[in-house]
Predict the structure of Cytidylate kinase.
Amino acid sequence: MKKQMQIAIDGPAAAGKSTVAKIIAEKLSYIYIDTGAMYRALTYKALQAQADLEDADELLQLLRESIIDLKPGEAGQLVLINGKDVTDEIRTSEVTNSVSFVAKHAPVREEMVKRQQLFAEKGGVVMDGRDIGTHVLPNADVKIFLKASVEERAKRRHLENISKGFSSDIEKLKEEIILRDKRDSEREAAPLKKAEDAIELDTTSLSIADVVDQIISIAKEREQAW
Ligand code: CDP
Ligand code: CDP
């Protein structure tokens, strides 16, 4: 690919966004920005500080005190808050089940979006989240909305937990995914929504490689149309 593109990937929880976004970024030598990791980092910090997750001002203050860095590491992307590695801490179920409360506040989102847009100025970028095609990169060259059945998504998370040696309950995961998607879709500020010009891909019966190939061919078609 000659042109440095912006590729936006949105969709509900566990649709495969970060897995495919990471691979596409590697293949195209682009940077990868996991915006969910940024909301998770703030949530972790808020839980540590015993902040009131309903208090937008308190959360915004915590965010302003926090430099959130996303850096490539040997075993995947590292997430740092003010230089401290919190890559594993932001994936606990406590953070996962609290993050959509933090992410619903408009002032928090405005500050996050500013930071995400600054990251994207660095060149070719693959960014994944919930509002990338609708708010963060409204002029992205490629917009993808990934989805998959909730049963398949719960199964994928379950297998991921088991492969990491964690215990896992597939029915509980399914309930948590349904609840988080509901909160993310029903909030007023930049809800989870397919952008009008996004291409929807149902990955329920697609492999990771299939999804990656489809998105790269869409990007190549766009490039040729330039
Ligand atoms: O990977 P997973 O689907 O579990 O979620 P994530 O991408 O790490 O995002 C965690 C949470 O952050 C989401 O459930 C949303 O509440 C929030 N988020 C958001 O509001 N906007 C984004 N652009 C990305 C994430
Ligand atoms: O970022 P998001 O929450 O959308 O999903 P993910 O963390 O990238 O993917 C959830 C799990 O589904 C990972 O363990 C992937 O390996 C797996 N998976 C996938 O991403 N795509 C498929 N087509 C099949 C499985």
Q: What stands out?
A: The mean pLDDT is 96.
